[in-house]
Specification:
Layout: H1 3-27, H2 39-53, E1 61-68, H3 70-80, H4 89-95, E2 96-103, E3 114-118, E4 124-129, H5 144-157, E5 169-174, E6 179-186, E7 197-204, E8 207-215, H6 220-257, H7 264-288, H8 299-337, H9 342-348, H10 355-382, E9 388-389, H11 391-395, H12 405-435, H13 437-451, E10 458-459, H14 465-481, H15 484-504, H16 509-529, H17 548-573, E11 580-581, E12 584-591, E13 599-605, E14 611-618, H18 623-642, H19 646-660, E15 667-675, E16 680-686, E17 692-694, E18 700-702, E19 721-724, E20 730-734, H20 736-739, H21 751-762, H22 767-782, E21 791-797
Antiparallel strand pairs: 1-2, 2-3, 3-4, 4-8, 5-6, 6-7, 7-8, 9-10, 11-12, 12-21, 13-14, 14-15, 15-16, 16-19, 17-18, 17-20, 20-21
Helix pairs in contact: 1-10, 6-8, 7-8, 7-12, 8-12, 10-14, 10-15, 10-16, 12-13, 12-14, 12-15, 12-16, 13-14, 14-15, 15-16, 17-18, 18-19, 21-22
Length: 801
């Protein structure tokens, strides 16, 4: 990277860093600038005010978290966003603050005892005591006049000016065992466009139960609809991400079995995301459990339950998604765009001090700051279109914990990584590879908009589409213009900086320090590699070495596919014979011991009315035997067509096997010519099991004759024999795999004696019945034991007169 480029990126980052705090109060008119109170201070203030009003429960369970009021902020923005006046101070205090909830030791999750809201400046904007409806109060509810007197004194003691409010409206709520009162004091201050608002003082039975601000919402359903849209998008994005785990899982398994993906880097990413997620969940477990209303559990127990559930159904699936997105995405991208993965991969190789990491880190941080500044600018412009960007969404982001917000945000950044990897790497690579630059990039951005929700919440959502599109498009384009680390840092920086703005812009130095923790984590690669910007060693990307066990699996899968292909080719070579041919009845069976067998057979009708029948066997079984078998079978068909006579067939096949097959790769063959008119059988055998003649009455004759196998010598002179056949007689040719088959229990073969008994027993019917009976007897003998050799049977029957 040249000095000019370095300065250009640094200036861009500096301009964005200066612009962001200037744009924040304009994009978020009600943003809580200058937060003064820490979580610990808010807790102390809340407990002190509680003690001034009553006693704390024994061994209380205290929850502290930052919170914002979406609905109130939107109403105030609709009224005051144009700069026409300022919201009432009391309502501003209610907008943001620390929420402190106090539970009794054994209280179930929904039943808090005290609820206090402390504003960023330290004022208490809400102080409430509550009892479950099933419990009685400490006495009867006061009369309205007495209640008004006590409430007025209480407001003055709490710092309110009773003169700022009109006479209260007294409302009674009759519960099972007590009566509660609420006194609503409407504000005298007129605020055009705002619903009625004021302060409410509550009594639980006879006990003064605190105060809170209130505002009527006559159109509550309409008021909530923009938030419902965003919630639907949020849950929809999470559902899509979880569904993608299945899709990516299938692709990963396929590529894994083909040896196209490794697991080392994916495992490291899995552990990184899981560790980050568990860190964030552990630090936010207490406030996050406020959303889990498990009434059967104590509030402390619901914290642990919530932590486990969020870990199992949140952090763990996201970690799996990140690992799969990297593994599959890398396998797609590495061939064409491997250089774009180098900077990200260098982090896991420990090559942080490299110019590769330095360039990507500088670009990513600068682009992330520029992206956030642009989003804030669009948020400012979109106010003219009727859209609002709510600071409450930033303050309330991921239920930030009290004293550990910085570390929690570091962990949360890890949970942002899976969605960015899915969009910027996986979809980017797949769509661009299949659809080209423009179509693929456009489709990636479109899909990414449903998975990467914008860092700034646009309300209503449709008016915020430009910001949403920009938020997705910039990281996607950064991958293609530069590399993956630049792309990921762009997205992480934008969302990370926005999340910590309430801390970085706080007035309290301790809050500022918490805000700088995740920013330092984002800048860490650049800080370590900064000296390499002017020039240093490049990190050269190498596709992850596939582990040996993966290679073995891939090799087995490759062999399986090759064997399956060879079996299909062999099946195409071996014929499917008809039940009748040239006036003869035919039946055949072929059962290979492996995917590719060494046996072969054929039955061919000759022009002169004769029938040529052959069964052969190549030594052994498997691919090598199958290849020789295919050659012999093809040569047999050609030779029979040219000259079907027995001596010619044996001479040609012997010469081919001798010249083509390697030493000791021999072949056996039984070949016969059947003449229906003369009822004559002409046959010969070369090292093969002899054919059988079976009469219709069941007499079995083993036809004599034979010689050594094919391929032993360069020439072969078969011993040609002739046999008289009678109408209804069977000619049975078979391979030695049948007679040599043994059961599981012992080594006793099926043998010739059982063979002849079976042939005699099943004679008299069709050749199909004879063949099936023979195979059934073989199955009974072996007990279904897998074949050790190929089994072939061909049965031909002369027509019955």
């Amino acid at each position: 990277m040249s000095t000019r480029q370095i300065f250009a990126w640094l200036i861009a980052a500096a301009v964005a860093a200066v612009a962001i705090p200037l744009l924040v109060p304009r994009a978020f008119p009600l943003f809580p600038m200058g937060w003064e109170v820490t979580a610990a201070e808010a807790r102390a203030i809340a407990l002190e005010r509680i003690r001034g009003l009553g006693e704390l429960p024994a061994d209380p369970y205290v929850v502290v978290f930052r919170d914002g009021d979406f609905s109130l902020e939107r109403r105030l923005l609709e009224r005051f966003a144009a700069g026409d006046g300022e919201p009432p101070e009391l309502l501003r205090r209610r907008l943001f603050g620390w929420e402190v909830r106090v539970y009794a030791a054994d209280a179930p999750a929904p039943e808090w005892t005290w609820r206090v809201r402390v504003s960023p400046g330290g004022e208490v904007s809400m102080l409430r005591f509550d009892l479950p409806a099933r419990q009685g109060g400490e006495g009867e509810a006061p009369e309205p006049a007495a209640a008004r007197a006590r409430a007025g004194d209480f407001l003055r003691q709490s710092g309110f000016d009773p003169g700022a409010f009109a006479e209260p409206q007294v409302r009674a709520e009759q519960l099972a065992r007590r009566t509660d009162l609420s006194l609503r004091y409407p504000a005298r201050e007129a605020s055009d466009g705002l619903p009625p608002w004021g302060v409410e003082v509550r009594f639980v039975g006879d006990r003064l139960a605190g105060y809170q601000t209130w505002m009527e919402a006559p159109e509550g359903r309409e008021d909530a609809s923009p938030f419902e849209q965003y919630l639907l998008l949020y849950f929809g994005a999470n559902i899509l991400l979880f569904l993608l785990i299945g899709v990516l899982g299938v692709l990963f398994v396929r590529r894994y079995h083909h040896g196209e993906v490794g697991v080392n880097r994916a495992l490291q990413i899995f552990l990184l995301v899981l560790g980050s997620g568990l860190l964030a969940l552990a630090l936010t477990a207490v406030p996050a459990a406020e959303t889990m209303m498990q009434g059967i559990l104590a509030r402390s127990a619901s914290t642990w339950l919530g932590l486990v559930l969020r870990a199992v159904f949140g952090a763990l699936p996201l970690a799996v998604l990140a690992a799969l997105a990297w593994a599959v995405g890398e396998s797609v991208a590495h061939e064409r765009w491997g250089g774009k993965l180098a900077s990200f991969d260098a982090l896991f190789h420990g090559a942080w001090r490299s110019v590769t990491v330095a360039r990507a880190s500088l670009r990513g941080l600068a682009l992330g700051l520029l992206l956030l500044a642009a989003l804030l600018g669009l948020a400012l412009v979109s106010r003219g279109w009727g859209a609002f960007t709510l600071a409450s969404a930033v303050v309330d982001m991921q239920l930030n914990p009290g004293g550990w917000s910085g570390l929690a945000q570091v962990g949360r950044l890890g949970l942002e990584l899976p969605a960015l990897l899915v969009v910027c790497l996986f979809f980017n690579a797949v769509f661009r590879r299949r659809l080209g630059v423009w179509m693929g990039g456009s489709l990636t951005v479109l899909v990414g908009m449903f998975l990467l929700l914008p860092a700034i919440l646009p309300v209503p959502v449709l008016q915020g589409l430009p910001a949403w599109l920009l938020w997705t498009a910039v990281p996607v384009l950064a991958f293609w213009r530069w590399d993956l680390l630049t792309s990921l840092l762009t997205g992480l920086t934008a969302v990370g900086v926005l999340a910590v703005l309430p801390l970085v812009l706080a007035a309290d130095p301790r809050l500022q320090l918490q805000g700088w923790v995740p920013l330092l984590a984002l800048a860490l690669p650049l800080l370590i590699s900064a000296r390499q910007l002017h020039g240093g060693r490049e990190f050269v990307y190498h596709y992850e070495e596939v582990p040996p066990h993966v290679r073995r699996i891939a090799e087995r899968e490759r062999q399986r596919v090759e064997l399956e292909t060879a079996r299909e080719i062999q099946s195409a070579i071996l014929p499917l014979l008809p039940s009748r041919l040239a006036g003869f009845e035919i039946a055949h069976a072929y059962e290979p011991a492996t995917e590719v067998g060494g046996d072969f057979y054929d039955v061919l009708a000759l022009e002169d009315g004769r029938l040529a029948v052959a069964v052969g066997d190549v030594a052994g079984h498997g691919v090598s035997s199958g290849l020789v078998m295919s050659m012999v079978k093809s040569a047999l068909a050609v030779q029979v067509t040219f000259d079907p006579e027995v001596h010619a067939v044996f001479g040609t096949l012997n010469r081919m096997v001798f010249q083509s097959a390697r030493r000791r790769m021999l072949a056996t063959l039984s070949y016969a010519l059947l003449d229906r008119e003369r009822r004559e059988l002409v046959y010969a055998s070369a090292g093969h099991i002899l054919p059988y003649r079976v009469t219709a009455e069941g007499r079995v004759y083993e036809l004599e004759g034979g010689a050594y196998p094919l391929g032993v010598r360069p020439t072969f002179a078969p011993a040609v024999r002739r046999e008289r056949m009678e109408p209804g007689d069977y000619l049975v040719l078979l391979s030695d795999g049948l007679v040599e088959a043994t059961p599981e229990q012992n080594d006793e073969p099926f043998g010739f004696e059982r063979l002849e008994e079976s042939l005699a027993r099943h004679a008299g019917g069709t050749p199909e019945a004879l063949m099936r009976g023979l195979l059934a007897d073989l199955e009974d003998h072996t007990g279904g034991r897998p074949r050790e050799d190929d089994v072939t049977v061909v049965a031909v029957r002369l027509p019955v007169l």
